[in-house]
Amino acid sequence: MNERISIVDVETSGLIPPGADEEGTGVCDISLRFIDKNFREVNHKHSLINPERQISPASTGIHGIYDKDVENSPTLGDFFKFNNEFKKGTNKVYIVGHNVRYDWEFIKDYLECEYELVDTLVLAKRYFQGAENYKLQTIRVMAGVHLDLSDQHSASGDTKTLLNILRVIGKNTGKDALQLCRESNKALPTDPMPIGKYRGQPIGEIVKNDPEYMGWMYNNAERLDQKVKDLIRILL
């Protein structure tokens, strides 16, 4: 089976997560950027979306989309009706995004095929250790990726940024895009951390969420036994 990769981003009508209030938050911009394992773009589906509710001033202040911009745009349901990349029977797809579960909450009802979520936050924390924060634009700068400032906080601009960050990681590690997706989702060991501020928590989860700290522990903690150090080294 040929596994596929789709980098996904949505911009929304509100700042409240979906399902958190009665009115809810809708999508007003979506980008699905399909790539092959060599980081080449093979398809791009992008559209403004009618969120079927008003766009809040705070949201417009972020992405620059007004109600009048989307009044004649398709709804999210119509967009997926005419874009069948996720229909039942199509090949498995890796859904890639930065804090991907946020985007997934809006599109999950339209994903009929087999899929896995891949969060680039995991990859960013592993390959850009020491970052001031792990926001997309911060990692973009650290990766040396140029972006027209007008593309910031647009769905298309964000998927383009993510693609270029993945290319940088691939070039630096020698790994292809499918390897990075699988690496992000590999099963993590549940052995407990014996010492330190994360004592008792699973080592795999600590390395995933705070690799910088675990790198320091690996190099400096004399009380770590060799089995634990070997496990940390493999995960880092």
Could you characterize what this model shows?
It is a single chain. The protein has two domains: 4-184, Nucleotidyltransferase, domain 5; 187-236, no CATH class. The model has no long low-confidence stretch (mean pLDDT 88). Helix 4 links the parallel strand 4 and strand 5. The chain is built from eleven helices and five strands, in the order βββαααβαβααααααα. The two termini are 30 Å apart. The chain has a five-stranded mixed β-sheet with strand order 3-2-1-4-5, sandwiched between helices. It has helices at residues 57-63, 67-70, 76-81, 100-107, 120-127, 136-143, 155-173, 177-185, 203-209, 211-220, 226-235; strands at residues 4-12, 27-35, 41-48, 93-97, 115-119. It is an alpha/beta fold.
Shape: globular
What's the Cα radius of gyration? 20 Å
* Portion in helices: 40-55%
Spatially, the strands of the biggest sheet line up as 3-2-1-4-5
CATH top level label of the largest domain: Alpha Beta
Report the biggest beta sheet as strand number plus sense, adding barrel if it closes.
5 strands, mixed
Report the span from N to C terminus.
30 Å
